[in-house]
Specification:
11 helices; Rossmann fold; 262 residues; alpha/beta; globular
Amino acid sequence: MPEIRSELVERLEALLCDADGNLFPSEEPAFVASAEVTNRYLAALGSDRRFTAEELRLATTGKNFRTTAADLATAAGVAVPDLTPWVAEEKQAVTAHLSRVLVPDAEVTGALGVLGRHLTLAAVSSSALTRLDGCFTATGIAGLLPAARRFSAEDSLPTPTSKPDPAVYLHACADLGIAPEQGLAVEDSLPGALSAVRAGCPTVGNLRFVAPAERAEREAQLREAGVIAVVSSWTELTDLLLPGLTGRTDPRASLVPARGDR
């Protein structure tokens, strides 16, 4: 089992959870819906490029649709159009699809319940808040990660961005009233890990929902990005953190409440 230094665990106040591919296996089904919108967008650009769902997943995991759409326009050699209607269309299509296909996962729910007794739980994602809401409701974790502790690179920042930009992690830490080193990030993708590490958050790589054939390569990417440990499951993460968290004085007493909790 990997190890995390006890002094790092001692100063933790929050668990900052990436959502897609980390809290639930949403990436594969999300790209089924997203590929349809992406291909219509490419046709509108006049590009002959088309993606299968799997090709799009492998090319863009960790990015949000706005960033992907801008990158595709640049690659096609055309000016980036107004992305607002395309972002809205993709958001609606993916959210509706995920709300239908995702189901609760007892391991994730149990781990969040245990860790939430010791750390403030927050979601830090590139995905839109409406998508997070649909996914959290479908998987039964909405009550563990309430709206005031959900942070989206698409919706929570003055200017929308996407991981690996660290802005969403810096915003989440500021809103929670913690220093980045007091928030342990849990990420499954390279862009997500880079975002958290660049923000100054200690970061654990989580392979729970990574396809088995991709795990070795993903682990190498996560370690190169600077994660402090890689786990294969939420149970392993809980077992890794719980000994150092048990018996501490509740660190959340010193937290400045998030905006929506005030």
